[in-house]
Amino acid sequence: MKRWIAILAVIAIAAVLPLLLSPTGYWIRVLTFTLLFAAMAQVWNIIGGLANQTSLGHAAFFGIGAYTSTILVLKFGISPWIGMFAGGFLGGIAALIIAVPTMRLQGHYFALATLAFGEVMRVIANVWTSLTGGPVGLSVPFVPPSIAAYSFKQLLPHAYIALIALIIVTVIFEAIRRSAMGYRLRAIKENPAAAEVIGIDTTKVKLQTAVISGVLMAMLGTLYAQVAVFFDPDTVFSAASISIRVALIAILGGVGTAIGPILGALFIIPVEELMNDLFSSGAAGLSQLIFGVILIAVILWRPRGFITVFDSLMARFSNKARS
Amino acid sequence: MSFLQAIIDGLLVGGVYAVISIGLTLVYGVMGIVNFAQAEFLMIGMFVSWFAWAYLGLDPVVAAPLSFAVAFGIGWLVQGQLIARVLKAPSVAQIFLTVGLLIVIENGSLLLFGSQFRSVTTSYQTMSLSLGALFISVPYLIAFGMSLACGLALWWFMRTSWFGRAMRATAQNPMAAQLMGIDTALMYKIAFALGVGLTAFGGAVILPYVTVFPGVGGQFVVLMFTVVVLGGLGSVAGAVVGGLAVGVIQALSSLFFPIQLQNLILFIVFIFVLAVRPQGLVGASR
Amino acid sequence: MSASQPLLEIKGLNAGYGEIEVLHGIDLQMFEGEFVCIIGANTAGKSTILRAISRLVPHVTGTLRFAGNDLSSRASHDIPTLGIAHVPEGRHVFSDMMVEENLMLGAFTARHAKDLSSRMEGIFELFPRLRERRGQLAGTLSGGEQQMVAVGRALMLQPKLLLLDEPSHGLAPKVVEEMHDAFTKIHSRGTSILLVEQNVGLALDVATRGYVLESGRIALQGTSAELNENPAVRAAYLGI
Amino acid sequence: KPVNIGVIMPLSGANAQFGINSRNGIELVADEINAAGGIKALGGAKINLIVADATSTPTTAGTVAQRLITQNEVTAILGAFASSLTIAISEVTERRDIPLLTMSFADQITGRGFKNIFQIVAKASALGKAQLDYTLAIAQASGAKIDKIAIMYEDTAYGTAQAAGLRAAAKAANIDIAMDDAYPLGITDTTPLINKLRASGAQAVFPVSYLNDSLLLIRTMRQQRITIPAIGGAAGYVIPDFEKGLGEFAENVLSIAPANYDLAPDLTERFRKRFGYFMVHEALEHAVALDVLVQAIEKAKSAKAEDVTIALRGAKFTGGWTKAMTGGAVEFDSTGLNTLSVPVMAQWRNKELVTVWPKDVAKGTAVWKS
Amino acid sequence: MTILDVRGISRRFGGLQALSDVTFSVPKGQIVGLIGPNGAGKTTFFSTLVGLIRPDSGSIQLDGTSVVGQKPHKIAALGMTKTFQNVALFAESSVLDNVLTAGLLRHDVETARKEALICLDRVGLKSVAHKLAGNLSFPERARVELARALCTGPKVLLLDEVMAALNPVEMQEIMDLIRSLRDDGITLLVVEHHMRAIMTICDRILVLNFGRLLADGTPEQVANDPVVVEAYLGRSMEAHK
Ligand SMILES: Nc1ncnc2c1ncn2[C@@H]1O[C@H](COP(=O)(O)OP(=O)(O)OP(=O)(O)O)[C@@H](O)[C@H]1O
Ligand SMILES: Nc1ncnc2c1ncn2[C@@H]1O[C@H](COP(=O)(O)OP(=O)(O)OP(=O)(O)O)[C@@H](O)[C@H]1O
Ligand SMILES: [Mg+2]
Ligand SMILES: [Mg+2]
């Protein structure tokens, strides 16, 4: 019961926060991207945290989503809302296609094969100029603001859409985690052979999660495209700034937990911005350097993620209560 | 003829891919972590060798041992001071520690050395041997020779020496290795330092034909991963086979497809090889 | 070192994992050339005693001395250099190495010795099965074969003190017989042995003295004959 | 009250070198103006540069732009060298009506009908066209005839756009394109390209690439004893490191450039004095951009973005750093493109870049040899 | 009624014939012991039965259904599962979750949890239900293996040395458990090197040697078979009689 109250309180704060920020300003943009990256990391968490398949290729699905909805608007004037589902569908298919050859791969083999898949998608987007505009990238057309056209003059609605998306994917994550599927995924993660022998269809479960994760990631790609307005293959299919970053966010926060990715994003995105703000006018590379140092420090401090700060606080709290 | 030329070219660059990747596979093989910062040590190796060339007048290939030594020292510190602290943490924490390291090294060298693109001029930079209608680039050939020698030496060392044996034992079961009297912490340090040292060595060797700047690692990092995974993670022989295979696949693909698709073809082949042999070309099948 | 000084001396040993303490004030002594066994129920902490000697337990307090050396200041990789070999519970073979290489590693701290191949020959005589499988990767061996590797590996060191944690685990009865004969032989050549064995009857058969461990405390100690006659021991551990 | 001007450049990552060059150019001009008493029309207000790192990601560039606009209230933004970054910034500046001055030359920049963007140099397609046309003219002037060429370019926005210009010009001039290959950015081995080049039988090759590939290409060509001239497409061919890397092999290499420092040595020498290397074109163009911007502020007598935008559009800017541009002045058309700028052909001569074409601005005679 | 029928199972590993032509059948409700020297192929045989290893030839019928070539999870659903000799628990999960996960084969999460607690109780591990499986001692883990396999609700249960490293008293508890499982209608195949346990609980014993079935009979027949004594038992039988 207490839990629920806490959760509702957090959501309420999150819902009010955007209103306090200037609707055309900088911080609301940062907040929007923070929420978006939290959602992306949460989706990654389904496969990376529950199934322990460290995917480093989620940019592939993300980019598919961004491109699908944007191309549909540009070429056919179809609303990004519909494009989002079209992108999700294609993202799911892509997840299936990559899941089949990588199914048997374990651990780092899987990670690096998916990394390659992300790169494959990037090259395709770069080469298929007639469809994607090639290396030059695509701009989301500016249409008169309306909810139906997913177009707003200000960033505020985008922030709310990102918040809702985050809540939805978090609920999905938590539902999977607690369900039979969650237990099966943990079993597969720790010992696939034993999992099979006690009756878990490892292939099926892996495919299911891969597809769920692919669909959701692609749908978030649409949200991103609508906020960022312009993107090119290097942006949305980027290993460093999408694939590895979402994994990093989830891991820094606490992989396999529902709160982890949110904590991770709340930390990484604003800190990165802050470093850029504070140090990037100085010597070139300084802001990134400091960011890297902070990253290392945090991992050394909490190798199992920020979430463990709560765990130890809780432990101290309950110890006090007991004594 | 162009086919033969492509094979030769592919093997030559492949040998170099092999040596820069051997270090990565060694680090993985012993510590079980994928070192994302590995390519940064390539950059360090290139810088060391560049400075040796610019200020001491050394040929980059001659300076390669110096690059090795510097990277070895840095690797020793990094492993002992940073990575050792998270050895008990989940392996993702270790991996992402190396991501942090990547950012720090790249931007640190941007601060330290500036953003200029630096390259060396050597007496042989435009030399080549001709064999009938075939060309064999001299800088590539030198790099290839150094790489292969280095790879073979390491392979032999790991196979036959007590040291190599101890290193492999540590990789497979650190607890039991300690019971055998092996100082596993030391092994990790040496493995990491040796691994990044070798990559730096490779960096020096390719300097005669590659430009160095702080971001140069980014051009090689995915290639290095492809090489070690294709060959079989953790296998030194695998890195050699993987490197040669990647070189040849790239060279051959450019005969039949636009060069723009070079990496696409490479990655598709890569994913398919893994689908058939999940443990890589040379990895043990278990 | 005078003869009256124990080879291994454990005093007031507390040990545990994380917050859980498993051993509470263990006192145990062994003289050179002794063959001692520790018996006790599951989770009593038998393995933990051996692991504490090998410095593999994170939290240890108390005195641990071996042949005049204070073990508590040593790292675990130093232990074999003192002449202690440990066959751990659960085998822990190097799975991606050949049987031969596994055995060789047992003599890692004695790697400069000249007689390694004759030592290995001795292991093969004890476990002929291993000779047949010498080129196989240890990870693909059967359970019992792996146990043979684990025991053989420890014997390669020709230790002063041999710590055996359930060495007969998963071995066929005939092999167990042969192995215990071999332990007796090794013991008779002067090696001291500390044995943890669930097959209590067998343990008391081969060892000269024993300790009974109950929930992390020494409940009883005595010669094998005494323990064998003790009705409590018979009821609790021999099921008679 | 000082006038805040945003400078967004890639200061880390692969393009850091160019971002830093650009920033150097801008700082030079800002310091000069401030030293000379600031902006007169605003009572000697000083220029306050707000520099930010765009990293290499367009999204970051956009966020940074948003920050400079709302947090620092900048009058205008200069940036961001790479076209993709500039486009991402322009999406923000356009919505907030802040002028953006750039030297990125992708055709899209002024091709989208944006009202607040100003492009200081000719478009990429024009650059590509000039690369070919000038070459033909130079060859002809020395009695050589070209009817078969090879194009190779990195598959980035810059490479692709410029190659398109080359291609169109070749078609118009009825020249056979024997090879037309894109290659991935960050290629580590160019041997396959050169193998293809050798087989193509082209009489001149037009590589469009950054430095690393440029050096690789030229060296591999020499190794394979290919002696046809290479005419570079700016970027990697017109920076000091090119010559440092190749040494004697750089001599007489031609390259197109949007501008060159020898057109106004009195100005650009100040750069060399301060930073120790010749004023590379991106530094020069960004310097011009800032000068033009300040002129517009003077003219508008206001540091308000809307006023500055109006002042920028339509007027012709002369004097100051605009002298360093071909055309000797800057004038933006309705799309924001500087209509006066034409590219130049530069040639490496003894560690310096000498403008050798068009004839009216040339400082030396083109040498046609490989 | 025959529940398990094995015909002509063979399997090679490189140059080693790990199983050759193993044939026998088991009626429902028997406890069958499987013994043999180390490396005789017992574990390999179990792995073949549950589908982890594909036999080179031969047929396996479980309750009338052919299971050769089926995936292990299918075979588990059909009612046959095994424990792992080298212990293959989900080490980072709690003991309860280990067992619960197996219960999901036939139940939803809540029912599976109840079932799991019952199974843990039966193996005497209820008190450690919330410990991480990886922190248990080796023999405890073997018992979690047993509880987990049990929780899949099997018709045929293959136990690979679950009594290893137990002292005689503890062993007795497991033996009682195995008998009670038989009384519940489960058919059991038991691999164990403890002769006393095998001889007491098994209705019938199969002896495997070099991958071949060497003997098949009652405990008395097997114990007195000179070939078996020679290959496997050694002198030890006297000690255990
Ligand atoms: N790594 C560990 N982390 C936490 N607890 C542990 C760990 N290893 C052992 N334990 C606990 O310590 C206690 C004693 O274990 P130990 O292995 O010493 O027992 P044992 O007497 O050898 O029993 P067994 O016959 O089961 O091997 C057990 O309760 C066990 O669960
Ligand atoms: N994957 C494999 N590759 C090669 N040989 C194998 C493989 N798996 C098992 N073997 C060999 O097959 C033989 C049978 O092994 P198995 O594990 O079935 O024996 P077991 O009867 O269970 O023995 P134990 O009683 O010691 O557990 C052994 O000699 C083993 O070395
Ligand atoms: Mg024990
Ligand atoms: Mg077995």
From TrEMBL, chain A:
GO molecular function: branched-chain amino acid transmembrane transporter activity
Keyword Transmembrane helix applies: yes
Compartments where located: Cell membrane
Topological category with respect to the lipid bilayer: Multi-pass membrane protein
Keywords: Cell membrane, Membrane, Transmembrane, Transmembrane helix
Domain of life assignment: Bacteria
GO cellular component: a single term: plasma membrane
Pfam family, one: BPD_transp_2
Transmembrane segments: 5-21, 27-47, 59-78, 84-102, 109-128, 159-176, 210-231, 243-269, 281-301
Name used for this protein in its record: ABC transporter permease
Organism of derivation: Tardiphaga robiniae
Lineage, opening ranks: Bacteria, Pseudomonadati, Pseudomonadota, Alphaproteobacteria, Hyphomicrobiales
UniProtKB/TrEMBL annotation, chain B:
Endpoints of the signal sequence: none
TM region positions: 6-27, 39-56, 62-83, 95-113, 133-158, 190-210, 222-248, 255-276
Protein name: ABC transporter permease
Presence of keyword Ligase: no
Pfam families: BPD_transp_2 (PF02653)
Entry keyword set: Amino-acid transport, Cell membrane, Membrane, Transmembrane, Transmembrane helix, Transport
Species in which this protein is naturally found: Tardiphaga robiniae
Domain of life per record: Bacteria
GO function terms (MF aspect): transmembrane transporter activity
GO BP term (any one): amino acid transport
TrEMBL record, chain C:
Keywords, in A-Z order: Amino-acid transport, ATP-binding, Nucleotide-binding, Transport
Matches recorded under Pfam families: ABC_tran (PF00005)
GO BP annotations, alphabetical order: L-amino acid transport
Name of this protein: ABC transporter ATP-binding protein
Highest taxon above the source species: Bacteria
Single Gene Ontology MF annotation: ATP hydrolysis activity
Ranges for domain ABC transporter: 8-240
Protein role: Involved in beta-(1-->2)glucan export. Transmembrane domains (TMD) form a pore in the inner membrane and the ATP-binding domain (NBD) is responsible for energy generation.
Family: Belongs to the ABC transporter superfamily.
From TrEMBL, chain E:
Domain of life: Bacteria
GO cellular component: plasma membrane
GO molecular function: ATP binding; ATP hydrolysis activity
InterPro entries xref list: AAA+_ATPase (IPR003593), ABC_AA/LPS_Transport (IPR051120), ABC_transporter-like_ATP-bd (IPR003439), BCA_ABC_TP_C (IPR032823), P-loop_NTPase (IPR027417)
SMART domains per record: AAA (SM00382)
Alphabetic keyword roster: ATP-binding, Nucleotide-binding, Transport
Xref: CDD domains: ABC_Mj1267_LivG_branched
Function (record text): Involved in beta-(1-->2)glucan export. Transmembrane domains (TMD) form a pore in the inner membrane and the ATP-binding domain (NBD) is responsible for energy generation.
Name listed for the protein in its UniProt record: ABC transporter ATP-binding protein
